[in-house]
Write a structure and sequence with these properties.
Helices cover 52% and strands 10% of the residues. By secondary structure, it is mostly helical. It folds into two domains: 47 residues, no CATH class; 48 residues, no CATH class. It is elongated.
Length: 110
């Protein structure tokens, strides 16, 4: 059973697999509260994970902008970062024809 710590309102605020100061060994009576605590952690993690891909795109665009304005050189980046960026560029280029949402001959003004 895990060790739990409760806040002033009696809600579980920390869980540990090992004894810690202020933690007590949970009992079967704690199970509903523990399940709620873990569900809230899952929900929070899901919300953060949901922003990962849009943030990755922002970072890619930022890196491209810094390179275009010659603030940094692509070769200044670690080799692993260069490789990952090149892989994503290749994948985006391969998907680009399928992602073109404009009609025949229309060009974006953005």
């Amino acid at each position: 059973m895990p060790y739990i710590k409760r806040d002033a309102q009696g809600q579980i605020c920390e869980v540990s697999l090992t004894p810690q100061d202020g933690h007590i060994l949970s009992t079967l009576e704690d199970t509903p509260d523990l399940e709620l605590f873990l569900q809230q952690l899952d929900d929070a993690q899901g919300k953060i994970s949901g922003t990962d891909m849009p943030l990755v795109r922002v970072l890619e665009d930022l890196i491209d902008l810094l390179i275009d304005r010659e603030v940094i050189r692509f070769t200044d980046l670690p080799e692993a970062a260069q490789s990952k960026l090149m892989d994503r560029r290749r994948l985006r280029a391969a998907l680009k024809p399928g992602l073109d949402l404009l009609d025949d001959g229309e060009k974006s003004t953005v």
